[in-house]
Model the fold of this input.
Amino acid sequence: MDASELLVALAAVVVGFGAGVLSGMLGIGGAVISTPAVRLLGASPLAAVGSTVPAILPGALSGAWRYHREGLVDYRVGLTCGGAGTVFAVLGALVATATPEPGWLMVATAALMLWSGWSVARSGRHASGPRHPGTVPPTRPAVPTLVLLGAGAGFVAGLLGVGGGIVLLPIFTSILHLPVKRAIGSSLVAVAVFSVPALVTHALAGNIDWLLAIPLVLGVVPGARVGARLTVGAPDQRVRLVFGVAVAILAVVYGGAEIVGLTR
Done:
């Protein structure tokens, strides 16, 4: 490994740590940071999608364990969504592999980041403290509803190389009305489940640059532990607002750069 490759690997470790922090804090897999960052490190669009997937599973497991210890996981929601998403994660990975212009997958990732960042920031003012009068209480969703949610999130996870929690977290809080920390813990469980078939499919298709993927894994596990500890022990309101705004800003900058590159 020459000096330039070593610098790229070290940068990937740092990126993995940041992605892990985001995963542990907000239950969204962390690839919303690692996918554009890996792209900036020189990966092709398809490699940027595939190389982030190996880091999703250990990051999700590490974060989920912390929430489990605090009793903040709804396993009925997390496992049902995760199980339903497994087949669709494979389908999404196959669609990504067959996409004639993978650059548009990066634009789609940026759009998803923007939506999720906006959703997280908008809901941040209700992320902590007692429920306000008139707030809708948590519901016990029917299994078919959870299956549909998991299928959609799994497809997105396989297609864009993200954890899928970027779809689930806003839905868990706004539609299922789960408390924020329980939504994060449950999302991490679902992400861990359907990241496995996405990983296998991308690996078999040759979409993973392991010189980038392994450093990401090394960084993401300690990052996820730090992120989970921050969210469990601190008010969610400020955390969600700050990270929601940051993800939205990153989406605009990254998406704009990708669109300019595609139109040249």
User: Anything to note?
Assistant: The chain has one domain: 3-263.
